[in-house]
Amino acid sequence: MRRLVDDELKRIAGLAFERIRTEPQRALRDQATGETHWLEFNLEPPGKAGNVISAVYKTPVNVELNFLRASQDLATYAKVRGLSDRELALFVMTPAPGTMPPAEVERVENIPGEQSWNLEKQGFVVAAHASAAALAQDVWDWAALQA
């Protein structure tokens, strides 16, 4: 799923893609304890951090856990790096029409709506689409770089 968004983002951003996309695993060392902690997010344009995540799961619990992990990692990174509101973003791939039974799609789609509201109140930018192209365009607009 991230690869689909990456491919579309490369098309949109051209060479600027390398200034937006980062390796998803990041080690941060706690200065006080010396312990290393691992965070996962895959977008880091200058002064910002974000993540492309999936809500294409059959169980709402998996979708909620994905949101929780992604938002915690970004919030922690923001605290350590001194990032502020609107500099953190979650881009959520939702199920495409016809890929799941309608009742499951509705249950899964309700979660991003509720989670989005909570995260936006905390200063996150949140976008959800069933299309990789639409998600990549939102990433590009949020990153605010010149191609």
Automatic annotation (TrEMBL):
**UniProt protein name:** Uncharacterized protein
